[in-house]
Amino acid sequence: MISVADTDILSMFGKVGSISTLKRLFRELKVPSAVYEELLRAKEVGFSFVDDVFTDIEVINLTEDEHKEYISLINNEKYLHKGEIQGIVICKHRSGILLTNDKKAKNFCTKNGILYFDIKGILRGLLLRGILNEEEIQKLAARIEETDNTTIKGFEEIFKLR
To answer: Which position has the higher pLDDT, 72 or 1?
Structure first.
């Protein structure tokens, strides 16, 4: 099963130098061309983490049928960005998992039966698969929160029901 990453997840892991950790959990990690373009713009303004992302991630293009659905969604779903829409379409057509922390993208996935992992789900997966232990998860989350200027809401839920 392929995993398709959105820019926000790649940014979180890229800024703390942990793209390789993400790849250990999601071996078939791909990005749609629109996410690649967003990352190129980030590199142009000086974000060096993008180099690690480009080294470890494969760009995936839309098929003809996926492109038709993408065009339909881009015209009808004004609150989703191009990268999110491309990721959603790819995951729908190829039974993939979308990696996103965007609330609107997660809501769309839930309503449309598309699997997704947000930051909490990814951190929990790293823990449950034994890729990182609890202390390493806490340190990684703290670095992500500090570097990405974000708060991982409900963080303690990651450690429940192991």
So the answer is: 72
Question: Which of 56, 115, 118 is closest to 91 using CA atoms?
Answer: 115
Q: From CA 69, how far away is CA 105, in angstroms rounded?
A: 16
Burial of 84: CB neighbours in 10 Å, binned 0-12, 13-18, 19+: buried
Give the residues across from 4 on adjacent strands: 30, 98
Contact 114, 91 (CB under 8 A): yes
**CA 85/CA 69 separation, integer angstroms:** 9
The candidate with the shortest Cα–Cα distance to 128, out of 96, 159, 89, is 159
Cβ contact 6:87 at 8 Å: yes
Q: State how far the Cα of 147 lies from the Cα of 91, in Å rounded to an integer.
A: 29
Q: Are 139 and 16 in contact (CB under 8 A)?
A: no
109 touches 98 (CB < 8 A): yes
CA distance 92 to 4: 11
In the chain, where are the structural domains located?
Answer: 3-159
Q: Tell me: the pLDDT tens digits for 82-119?
A: 999 999 999 999 999 999 999 999 999 999 999 999 99
Phi, psi of 5 (to 5 degrees): -95, 140
CATH superfamily of this structure's domain 3-159: 5'-nuclease (3.40.50.1010)
